[in-house]
Amino acid sequence: MLAVKAARDYIRETKRITGKPNLVLPVTGHAAFHKAAHYFDMELRLVEVDPVSFKAIPEKIEEAVDENTVLVVGSAVSYAHGVTDPIEAIGQIALKHEVCFHVDGCIGAFVLGWMRRMGREVTPFDFSVPGVTSISMDWHKYGYCPKGASVILHKNRDIRRHQIFTCSQWTGYTVINTTIQSTKSGGPVAACWAVMNYLGEAGYQRLISRTMDASDKILAGLKEIPELQIMGTPEMCLIAFTTDEFNVFHLVDEMKTRDWIIQPQLGYNGSKENVHLSIAQAVLENVDDFLKCLKESVAAAKKLDNSAPPEAMLAMLDNIQPEMLRGPGFTALMSQFGMTSDGVPDRLAGLNQMLNVMPNELTKAALTEYFNELFTPAA
Ligand SMILES: Cc1ncc(COP(=O)(O)O)c(C=O)c1O
User: Is the distance from the beta carbon of residue 32 to the nearest atom of ligand 1 less than 6 Å?
Assistant: First the structure.
């Protein structure tokens, strides 16, 4: 959000913006950019990615850029498929059109930096690439720190200045906020400092090397399961895989019964529904068990109900307007997918399958409604 705000205000000051500012985001870009566009009332220009590599296509990005573009975004790596966008080519587009370019390194930058130091090949992604104007990184991911301390780096002070909010036009104390959060705790930063000092360079090198060993083993194991296809070529330790042979969401349920949590991802714009793994260093000792459980889960999933959602159900969903999901409409719809007043069922494949085929606006409305209901006291 800070990268988007800083870019918007920097470009507004340095270039003539005649209309609503927009940001250009590959469909694989993190939801956080949708959120920023939503909060800041900016236009979000989503662009397709390559259907095989799941990397952004520079030409598509360039087509979407116009005189009101303030920012283009690339990922290093993307959360869903764990691949790095062609940062160098996007950087050239940013330079040519004089727009800001944010590299989302929230989950990848720390690991990629270490991989490079350890001699692994890494797609260029940082300020050494011309055109990159900001980079983000989350300590609470592969930095193994508690949540609440993330990093945003700007290429220069002229851009960073626009991240800062200052107000002395009121009757109280002068406010100077460097982030969106105003009053905030120093606790997470202190905890982060402590973890970094505790682990040190040697500690991080050990953790990242264990993470990559686990990842290499899992990737090799996945390639031996004929029913599964890895999506794209994972650059580090995030992997997405899918299947054409059964409802992939059954795998999530089956793995849960074997004490493994893997993450379902709904299909979107050329990326079929799939399972995502974010592999951490602690998995290394358990890779063999993971692969054994996965093979068993594949065999079990094939025996479950793998029929496509009934046509009548799809037709019904097409006729529901998002507003109809408020209140009783929501309860009625969700009960069809096994949700009761006691909450979500143990097995979620049916529900995930429906969320996967529902029109996007309806999925969004249903999930919002679920949370809104969750935090409503019983009458
Ligand atoms: C690639 C990537 N970008 C951004 C984010 C930041 O998300 P948020 O700001 O919603 O915590 C994440 C978190 O998972 C991420 O993986």
Answer: yes
